[in-house]
Amino acid sequence: MNRRKFLAASSLAAAPLAAPSIVRAQSTFNWKMTNAYGPGSPFYVEGPGSPTDFCKKVSEMSDGRLNIQHFAAGELIPALEGFDAVRSGVVEMNAANAYFWAGKLPAAQYFTTVPFGLNFQGMNAWLYHGGGMELWDELYEPLGLKALPMGNTGVQMTGWFRDPIESIDDFKDLKMRIPGLAGKVYATLGVDVKLLPGGEIFPALERGVIDAAEFVGPYQDRRLGLQNAAKYYYTTGWHEPSNVTELLMSKKAWDSLPADLQAIVKSAAMACNLESHTWCEANNAEALTDLVENFGVQANVLPAEVVASLKTATAEVLEAGAEADPTTRKIHDAFMAFAAKHHQWSAISEKPYHSL
Q: Is residue 182 over pLDDT 80?
């Protein structure tokens, strides 16, 4: 009897210590996510692997303990104000691309894409297993932010041009919509670089406000109607061999989640990263065929001498950016060291296969 009384008393005494963790684990969180892209945008807003799909996955995986209300661009805040909205606590999450924040953090561009850099496989290898995520955390933590990769378009098209590109001189005085580090490269060649949200590209190209535009790839570009504003469609993917969708979060909000919900967010983001890329791969081939056969689009590869000039200009731009900022230097050197190893491996594993 004394033993039973002792065990009962011990159990009651221990209960208050365990209760807070149990209560926290069962708490419900209601968050808001904004987006840099407009309502209805495939991949960037809706569809498999999209931000709205991510929100659905998180709710289902957490059994409703973490609910995220999604707002496309313009529904709560303007398209490119998500970074400040998360920092200020207006929302807990934002979906965009890190290179949109280049004016605030030049090094952030490395976590979207690098011209002549890493493809989908290489970028994910660097982020998940090559130290990329640790560098991303190091960059954002002082600002009270946390980021995860949540999507990837894979290689993108060079873009749409109203006139053909036959030499590097054709870029001089060209007005072009192009974001990120590629925009800086083009600027050194005399391009008048414009940063426009997706919904503004077609009217600008149609009216001649811009002469050329880069967006994503055949499926997405066709949806915007870019084939009705320009007919010369070029590829090499030099500027964006992959393109990471950034899930940006408030670090304070992230830290408030119990471990199991953090694991669910990570898993849902990784699932969307894979699913979004496979969706792009499944749809771009048909869309490109349709553009060429039914809209009179001329799909061409950039001339080799143009690509060579772009590669030289890219190296100069990246080095100048690294020289100007110690943080960018650290991330640049780490990215390039990993890229050199990955390129060496892909030259043995992937390139021979694609040349068959």
A: yes
Joined tokens for residue 19: 């209760």
Residue type, 10: S
- What the block records as the tokens of 344 is 């060496």
The H or E element that residue 323 is part of is helix 304-324
pLDDT band at 43 (very low <50, low <70, confident <90, very high): very high
Secondary structure (3-state) at 124: helix
pTM of this structure: 0.89
What would you report as the CA-atom Rg of the chain, rounded to the nearest whole angstrom? 23
Q: What is the pLDDT of residues 199-238, one digit of tens each?
A: 899 999 999 999 999 999 999 999 999 999 999 999 999 9
CB 118 within 8 A of CB 339: yes
Strands 175-177 and 212-213: parallel
The whole-angstrom separation of Cα 183 and Cα 269 is: 28
Given a contact cutoff of 8 angstroms between Cβ atoms, the answer to whether 310 and 237 are in contact is: no
**Which segments within the chain are labelled E, that is strand?**
29-35, 66-71, 93-96, 145-152, 159-161, 175-177, 192-194, 212-213, 232-235, 244-250, 298-301
Complete DSSP assignment for 244-313: EEEEEEEHHHHHHS-HHHHHHHHHHHHHHHHHHHHHHHHHHHHHHHHHHHHH--EEEEPPHHHHHHHHHH
Torsion of CA 177, 285, 164, 180, to 10 degrees: 20
Q: What backbone phi and psi angles, to 5 degrees, belong to 192?
A: -90, 100
Residue 317, pLDDT > 90, answer yes
Going by the DSSP 8-state scheme, the letter that residue 231 receives in this structure is: -
Name which of 161, 159, 201 is nearest 182 in CA terms. Answer: 159
- Reading phi first (left if > 0) and then psi (alpha if -120 to 50, else beta), residue 327 is in alpha
Q: How close are the terminal C-alpha atoms of the chain, in Å?
A: 81
Label residue 30 exposed, middle or buried (CB < 10 Å: 0-12, 13-18, 19+): exposed
For residue 77, the tally of other CB atoms under 10 A from its CB is: 18
25 band by pLDDT with thresholds 50, 70 and 90: low
